[in-house]
């Protein structure tokens, strides 16, 4: 990898060896990393990754907010109605009730 590379792992934690990653970050062999999965879940409080400026950590289910789920549900309903041939239904009376 180039020294300007950023590693992003959102798949499975164990595919990245965290000790090797920490060494690569500390030595400047890579520029940074973004992770939402870790070799050991949850990421230990004393992990050096938590203290590095070139590391972005997120929860694996960061997209699981109530608003995100509501959008998924509304899109599913619209797709179903469109598939049934019901075009542009007025769903506003149901908004916020699912």
- How many β-strand stretches? 3
Topology pattern, helix = H, strand = E: EHEEH
Poorly predicted segments: none
Average residue pLDDT: 86
Shape: elongated
Supply Rg: 20 Å
Count of alpha/pi helices: 2
The end-to-end distance, rounded to whole angstroms, is 46 Å
Structural class: alpha/beta
The biggest beta sheet reads: 3 strands, parallel
Strand content is 5-15%
Strand order, largest beta sheet: 1-2-3
User: Which range best describes the helical content: under 10%, 10-25%, 25-40%, 40-55%, 55-70% or over 70%?
Assistant: 25-40%
Structure, explained:
This protein is an alpha/beta fold. It is 29% helix and 11% strand. The protein contains two helices and three strands. Strands 1-2-3 form a three-stranded parallel beta sheet, with no helix packed on it. Strand 1, helix 1 and strand 2 form a beta-alpha-beta unit. The radius of gyration is 20 Å and the shape is elongated. The relative contact order is 0.13. The mean pLDDT is 86.
Features:
single chain; 98 residues; alpha/beta; 3-stranded parallel beta sheet; 2 helices; elongated
Q: Helices, strands, pairings?
A:
Layout: E1 6-9, H1 18-27, E2 32-35, E3 55-57, H2 66-83
Parallel strand pairs: 1-2, 2-3
């Amino acid at each position: 990898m180039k020294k300007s590379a950023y590693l992003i792992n959102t798949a499975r934690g164990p595919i990245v060896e965290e000790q090797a990653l920490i060494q690569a970050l500390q030595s400047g062999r890579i520029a940074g990393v973004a992770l939402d999965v870790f070799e050991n879940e949850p990421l230990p409080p004393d992990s050096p990754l938590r203290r590095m400026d070139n590391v972005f950590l997120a929860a694996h289910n960061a997209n699981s907010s109530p608003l995100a789920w509501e959008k998924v549900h509304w899109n599913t309903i619209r797709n179903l109605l469109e598939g049934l041939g019901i075009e542009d239904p007025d769903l506003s009376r149901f908004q916020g009730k699912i």
